[in-house]
Protein 1
Amino acid sequence: MPIELFNKGEHRCLMFCDIEHGDGVQSNQFLIVDNGTGAVIDPGGNLAYNDLYVGMTGCFPPHRLSAIVASHADPDIIASLDRWMTATSAPVYISKVWERFVPHFCKPGKTAGRIVGIPDGGMRIAVGQSKLVALPAHFLHSEGNFQFWDETSGILFSGDLGVSIGVDPATTITDLRPHIPSMQAFHRRYMVSGKVLKLWASMVRSLPIRMLVPQHGAPMAGAAIEQFIDWVSTLECGIDVMTQRDYSIPA
């Protein structure tokens, strides 16, 4: 069953987090519903497809889906794309960096005319009477990477930024400090540099974020959001912590 992150009249935000992944990494998929249409965010791989598709059809018919939105092009983000191309007529929004790679997930010709390359500066994507704002999040962790700000709910869908490992995704983190150990190793490895994190932190401080929801692990709300922004803005990671030892010829 999906977790309802937000519900106000004709606008809902749903998170699917308990889909059976077998040996795959735990991941969250998201459905935005607005006035009889909607968008799926980071729809995931084939292991996630059935539950997300059924959940969507419980809200509106498949032909009413207005957008398939991807933060980047990893398999746990869009490996199920071929099936979404068959079941719906929705366009795919993804960084222009990955625009020509996306067809590799589908049978020949299925993505023709249906890929919208998001420019580096981001854009606004209409979903019913609301909008998703594609926010630049390049190198966090992908070269072409976006997060999605839902203006109506105040939820920032943050992709791989904010991931917690081993934390029940059905919980909500309201105090970051006990959870830093579940986040630190992931962020030090998967985020490219502290410089990029500082730039991101400066951008999002002006947003009225009600909830920050990553693609893996648990959402953050309340004081944890500002605590997280403060924490990552001083974090050394990626190329900051690389040394010659990491670039040695194996014995």
Protein 2
Amino acid sequence: MTEARQRDIEIADEDRLRADFYNFLGLLLAAPPDRGTLDMTAGLAGDDSDLGRAMQALARVARVTTPPAAEREFNALFIGLGRGELLPYASYYLTGFLNEKPLAQLRSDMAARGITRAPNVYEPEDNIASLMEMMAGMIVGRFGAPAPLADQRMFWNRHIAPWAGHFFADLEAAENSVLYASVGTAGRVFMEIEKNGFAMLAE
């Protein structure tokens, strides 16, 4: 989604894991997973936490999902004939229309942080996959210095919190979701973890 300078920067292990999970969600939501991505997902393990159980379920489904099946599912969910079952854009979830005020606000915040859209990406920047990638990049310093937690919280509260949980819940329940039902569960649980973490920061 974005281009920026990548530097060797010391990041706390917890924040590195957060960034990795945002990147993982972005990868699965940006395009149908290929064989390598499915194999990587199938090898994931989890503990007895809500997120751990969600990852176990996702791994089980990935083990029996073929790349053609994943592509058909992705297309039915997000592309379809004319449009997919879901429209994964902040503007649509928040206003009912594409390319509305939430996208303009996001572009302004992107410009302020030196985040630019990659030249080979044509979808609006408020796509859920792009927002997951942006959060990962802010955490690890892909757009300059790593963003302080307060700045991460501001961006998350403005562009992700108002709709991402709803989107992931819709993805869990979508008619065409099989592999992506588990992606939806993992995303919804992770959004709750982030919400609680940022809430503690504000106290």
Protein 3
Amino acid sequence: MIQPYSSDHCIRNEREAGIALLADQLAIKFAERASKHDRDGSFPFDNFVDLRDSRYLKLTVPKKYGGEELSLYEMLLAQERIARGDGSTALAVGWHMALILSLRYTNRWSEDLFSRFSAEVVKDGAIINHFASELATGSPTRGGKPQTTAAKVVGGWSISGRKTYSTLSPIVEHFTISAGIEGNDEVGEFFVRKGPGFSLVETWDTLGMRATGSHDVILDNVFVPDEEVISLSGLEKQRQVTDDGSGSLMHIPACYIGIAYAARSFAIDFAKNYKPNSLPGPIADLPRIQQQIGEMEADLITARTLLYSIADRWDRDPDGRVALKPDLGLAKYIATNHALRIVDKAMRIVGATSLSRNLPLERMYRDVRAGLHNPPMDDVVLQNLAKRAIQE
């Protein structure tokens, strides 16, 4: 699973090598637990203890608040490697890492709120995610208005509703939510703390990514003070919120590339060591197996090269981030679809044994399917690329 830094063309310096090493060390532990959490559909609290203890959770926090201020490129290096150990843990913690990275550039939160929460991350290992999905609206990226409502009360807001796909819900003590404003068509965003009126319904029982804790969250007149309102009409203009092209969502393709890398490595090790008595050597010597390995390599190198080259462009050109959005989507499209092909080929190399639940391949096969349902969706990516081509 661990790749020597000298052979990884995506690692460019000693800082990045150190980030990769930290993630590799965590991934080894997570890989040992992945099967149990997958079978049980249980949330990997033990993994998050390790993430806290290693200070991983603060890596994208700004340096002025005590974090390491990882760039997008550096965050992807770390996230890809976490996914080599356990895809569910990588995808789940990726939302936390990405949200903090995004807040550094977009200015969506007030400085006071962001500094206070960052201090909690650095000191206590606080974790956060944004809960937006609802059963009636589907993916929030499609633009549906949330049925969760926020009503003005003395000193703040009273929020009621139900959120689905609430990844990290078993462990977060703070989260943000989108809600329709009672009495008009506006949608606001609120910083919510677990407390009176909050409840968790354990609905997450899925084919893949079974350990992300993406349960339903119910809010019943949960109070949010005025100072923890993130966005309402006029607030974003006051803060001069910046559109960063949603670059932080690149943690999603990094996760699926990591899973594919782990499957590819398992299959290669198997091919090098499996010696049926009908052959003079291992199956890795067979031309058809070498062709399948070569096809996996072609897909993996293509996906990684595209992902990291676009992340580097995003880091280096803040003014060009919005224009880069179709390319960011393309990186996700290539990564998830190539990951599907890589894991499929890995299972073909290993053969019927790959279906055994005693091996990790069948879990990886199920986990990579989830990538098709993470934003941006394939149809949106292709439409954006088509629109840009037509305009050009």
